[in-house]
Design brief:
It contains 4 helices and 29 strands. By secondary structure, it is mainly beta. The strands form 7 sheets. It has a 5-stranded mixed beta sheet with strand order 6-7-8-9-13, with no helix packed on it.
């Protein structure tokens, strides 16, 4: 049987696509589930010029884009069950859904936040019923805002929130991640250093808060790992790595499985200038971290307890900082995008493509459970 290192060493560039604007950064990547009877997947990328661009995954050909965004975008997510539905969140206090089959500026649905909301993170539950977005700090408050994500029978709908959680973070909510298989479980991370896990089946925010983990730093990335995804990990803005076992929350066992305050200092065998993210490989029960260099190299790392092991490095693809990636567990392919305005597809045992570009600078019951917590400052905003 091939080792994990041997499997990863088979990754080579299968295809690439360049942005028309060489100064456009690729900030986030997601891919659709292929529609019934189809094999084609669509790639959605979030660009630094406030546009969303769609590509055919196999050919890497450009399809169309949505570019009428008034403010900064904070991510893109495809529906889990419908590959033609794409979501994006914006700092203008809205989340929008788009029909990925068509071009044009008009969204299919508009999810409105409360006054003064600026969304910097969001996610959708695994059953596509609930949307949740995290806000920047507003005076003394930070909010997790929830919506019923189901589409009505009309062509366009504008929806108001079901409610918010407002008592669990006291700074910008930088990450929102629903559990991969449990639609009632969602985790949030903040610049206050806390990673909170909520059970939305509970009646109120206090009861819903099932676990709080402290990273001692500003949370940059969240993800789920372990058997049945009972573990959660975070990467911090100062390149730290933490992993917790939620199965130990109500036991005497320690909840912290890994704590590396600066992965850059422990990544022997490669150079890591920054961390991009992480993903869990169930068949090896391995959590892999993705790090990079400012010259465009990508390193795949395995963290076990307090030890960081270098597995493999991908070189010769990017020529500048890599900002985003997407790992596809079905075919072991990797998508990467960065500050060189390049989108790359890496596949096992594929021939490399030459030419490296030079750097250029549940709704009714949920509505009863998710309630607005009116603080004094928040009430004032609502009256204005």
């Amino acid at each position: 049987m091939e080792t994990l290192e041997e499997q990863l060493s088979c990754l080579h560039i299968a295809n690439r696509s360049a942005m028309e604007d060489s100064m456009t950064y690729v900030l986030d990547i997601d891919t659709s589930e292929p529609a019934e009877g189809q094999q084609t997947q669509v790639i959605a990328i979030l660009c630094s010029n406030k546009s969303i661009r769609l590509y055919n995954k196999e050919s890497m050909t450009f399809l169309h884009e949505y570019n009428e965004h008034p403010a900064v975008l904070s991510g893109v997510r495809f529906s889990h069950s419908n590959g033609s539905v794409l979501y994006s969140a914006c700092s203008d206090g809205t989340v929008k859904s788009w029909d990925a089959r068509t071009s044009g500026a008009a969204p299919v649905q508009l999810f409105n936040g409360y006054p003064a909301n600026a969304f910097i993170s969001f996610d959708i539950s695994c059953n596509d019923l609930v949307l949740c977005a995290g806000t920047e700090k507003e005076e003394e408050d930070s909010f997790l805002v929830f919506w019923d994500a189901r589409a009505p029978n009309g062509k366009f709908a504008s929806k108001d929130p079901l409610g918010v959680y407002s008592e669990s973070h006291n700074d910008d909510i930088t990450q929102v991640r629903f559990h991969p298989t449990n639609p009632s479980m969602v985790a949030s991370g903040s610049t206050d250093g806390l990673v909170n896990v909520f059970d939305l089946s509970k009646d109120n925010e206090d009861d819903a808060l099932s676990a709080t983990c402290n990273s001692d730093s500003s949370v940059n990335v969240l993800g789920w790992a372990g058997e049945d995804h009972k573990q959660i990990f975070c990467l911090t803005h100062d390149e730290g790595f933490y992993r917790w076992d939620l199965a130990h929350v109500d036991t005497d066992e320690p909840i912290t499985l890994s704590k590396v305050q600066d992965v850059r200092e422990h990544a022997s065998g490669c150079t890591v200038d920054y961390l991009i993210g992480g993903f869990y490989r169930a068949k090896e029960d391995a959590l892999l971290l993705v790090g990079g260099t400012h010259s465009g190299d990508i390193s795949l790392l395995n963290c076990d307890a307090d030890r960081v092991k270098h597995l493999y490095s991908l070189r010769g693809g990017h020529s500048a900082t890599v900002r985003s990636f997407y790992w596809n567990a079905e075919d072991d392919s990797l998508l990467t995008g960065g500050e060189d305005a390049q989108l790359l597809l890496w596949k096992p045992r594929s021939k490399d493509v030459p030419q490296k570009k030079e750097p250029l600078k549940m709704a009714s019951s949920l509505q009863q459970r998710v309630r607005v917590h009116h603080t004094k400052s928040y009430k004032t905003k609502q009256k204005q």
